[in-house]
Design a protein that fits this description.
Blueprint: H1 12-20, E1 28-32, E2 45-46, E3 56-57, E4 61-64, H2 66-69, E5 78-86, E6 100-104, E7 116-119, E8 123-126, E9 129-132, E10 142-143, E11 154-156, H3 164-172, E12 177-181, E13 185-191, E14 195-196, E15 207-208, H4 211-221, E16 225-232, H5 236-243, E17 249-253, H6 264-271, E18 272-277, E19 281-282, E20 288-292, E21 295-300, H7 304-323, E22 333-338, E23 349-359, E24 362-367, H8 377-380, E25 384-388, E26 400-405
Parallel strand pairs: 5-6, 13-16, 13-17, 14-15, 17-21, 19-23, 22-24
Antiparallel strand pairs: 1-12, 2-11, 3-10, 4-6, 4-7, 5-9, 8-9, 18-20, 20-21, 22-26, 23-24, 23-25, 25-26
Helix pairs in contact: 1-7, 4-7
Amino acid sequence: MAKGGFKRRIPLADALDMLAQHGFEIGSEEVSFDCALGRVLAEDVVSEMNNPPFDRAMMDGYAVRAEDAFGASQASPVLLKVVGVTVAGDTVSAVVGRGEAVKVMTGAKAPEGADCVVMVEYTQELDGVVEITVSVPPGKHISKVGEDIKKGDLLLKSGTVLKPQDLGVLAATGNLKVKVRKKPRIVVVSTGTELAAPGEKLGAGAIYDINSYTLSSLASGLGAEIVSRSIITDDESLLEDVLDMKWDLLLLSGATSVGEKDFVPEVIRRRGEVVFHGVSIRPGSPAGFGVVSGRPVFMLPGFPVAAVTAFELLVTPFIQRMLGTNVAVPHPTIEGLLTKAVPSQLGRVDFIRVRIEKHDGNIRVSPVSAKGAGLITTLTKADGFVLLDAKKEGLEAGETVEVYLF
């Protein structure tokens, strides 16, 4: 066994418990609401104002007093005097008195004295008089001040990942600044003398780096900021330089197993602490976690599928916790029937790549042939993945499974 190698693989549940005990605060900052898409709220947001801020006409038509239009019908229309017109944006309008009406457009401020709007379809105006052919109750087609949101209402809770519609609510209520969690600054490094940057000419025995791009994209999708993405050869001094950089979280892939050149765990141990190394998951068992100078470091396998698996199961909940979001696999899910049995080992969580098809109204879930953790196409050919619980010894054909969609 190489120096620093793992002697046993701990259960995934134990690894997650250890990660939960290592909380790393990254602080918060105030940003303009229109720059906050995808950011995580660091505090609750309450409305600065009522919305709508005034009684508002919700239809084109005539603002009237409901009692004046009472009993109106096609057979017995009511005639009202038109005393003005108001459109959206007008600051003043005529006051509606007994036997009067004001023509209004959608979004206009409801005139004083009116308590309802008769839709234009049920009216006919001629020579300053409008004929009403329908009776409407008080409040009809008028949105009252604060009907949607009242000043002081809780709009969004701390931990919310801001969506486009959330920005609209912030704009509508005058919340021009919001406090959000700072983005974790992440450095991503692929280790391996055999690695080359995509586009470079490949020498004998060389392969293109995959992991730094995949892992960076996964981290960015969770809300992190990638400050550096690079490749280093199997040289401990180069890893030492990386450890001296400025970052909130370091993702290392490769050189984490038990081979002669798997030096990463030993360097982390020398510079700080290896919290765990080796997790009972497949693929991805060489994954580990450490702390250097009070900062978290993930040691991920070099094989691409193993690296993605370890990221999904270990890094994702950790980044979500740093950001203050709910800890859950951030994928939509769907249930389906497994088309073939999947063997497994008790005590190990398996990351099973699957394809989904609809057949005779049923969702069918088929495992993608997985001959090795280095075959990236087992991810690109998959629609999602199934997590096989450590307490189960395989899955049977026909069993209902939950699929996390990519």
